[in-house]
Amino acid sequence: MALPSRNPFSNRHVLFGVVFALLAAVGFSAKAILVKLAYLDSRDAVTMLALRMAFSAPFFIGVALWVRRRDAEPLNAHDWMLVTGLGLIGYYLSSLLDFLGLQYISAGLERLILFLYPTVTVLLSALIYKRAVGRTVIAAMVLSYAGIALVFLHNVDTQDGSIVLGASLVFASTLSYAIYLVGAGHTIARIGTTRFTAYAMVVASSASLLQFAIMRPLSALDLPLRVYGLSMAMALFSTVLPVFLLSYAIRRIGSGSAALIGTIGPVSTIYMAYVMLGEPLSLVQIAGSSLVLLGVLVISLNSRKSA
Questions:
Q1: Of 299, 292, 16, which Cα lies nearest the Cα of 144?
Q2: Rounded to two decimals, what is the model's pTM?
Q3: What average pLDDT does the structure give for the chain?
Q4: What is the distance between the alpha carbons of residues 90 and 177, in angstroms, rounded to a whole number?
Q5: CB 117 within 8 A of CB 181
Q6: What sign does the dihedral 49-50-55-58 (CA atoms) show?
C-alpha cells in the first residue's frame, strides 16, 4: 500500500494558498513604486491618497453590502466603534503617513521600514499584555534594526537631509499599523475577516475623501491621465486584490505561513525600484536588507511556534 505524499505542494489547496500569498506580497510591495511614479507629476500625498481610496471604495462597499446580506447578526454599537477606530488608525492614518514619507525617501527604504511592523507589534504586545520577550526575539530585533540603520546611513550619504523626515513618517506609519494589529485581533475573530476588512476600508476611504474635500480645492484633481491610471492600478493591484488574496491565502495555509511568504515583499520592492525607478542597488543595501529580512523571519517563525 502506497504511503500518502508528505509534499505539501502536492495539495492543490495549499499550492493555491502559496500563490495567493505571493501575489498579495508583490501587490502590496508595488504600491510604493506606483506612488513614486505618480509623484513625478504630482507630489501631493493628500490628493494621491484620496484617488487611491476613491477607486478602491466601490469594491469594498460592494463587499460590505454582500457580507451584510449574508451575515444575519448585525454589529452592535461597540463593534462599530472598534471598526471605526481601527479603520482610521490601521488604514487611513497609516496610509497617509506612508504617502507623506514617500515624498522624501526611496521606495526600497520605505518598504524595509514598513516591514518592521512585526517587531513593533511584539514590543507593543509585550507592553500592553505584560508578555515577556525572549532572547531569540530580542536578537532578531537587533538584527532588523541594525539592517535598517545600515540602509538608512547609506541613503543619508546619497540623499539630502529630508530623508530623516521621510523615514520618521514611514516609521510612524509602521507604528500606526502595529497598533491596529494589536487591537484588531479579538475584533476580527468576533466579526469575521472579510466583514471587518470591508467595513474598515470603507471607513478609511471616507476619511481620506473627507480630508481631501476639506484641504484641497476641486482644481487639485486637474491631473494628467497618467496619474489617474497609476491611481487605479494602485487601488486594484496594490489595495483591493492583495487584501482579498491574502485573506484567501490565510484560509488555505494559515496566517503564519502567509506571513513567512510575505517576506518576499521588500525584496520585490527593491528590485522593482531598481528596474522601474532607477534607484541605486549597492552591496550595503543588500546587506542591510538581508539583516532586516532575517530578523523579521526569525520573529515570524518564533510567533508561529508560540501560536
A1: 292
A2: 0.84
A3: 84
A4: 5
A5: yes
A6: positive
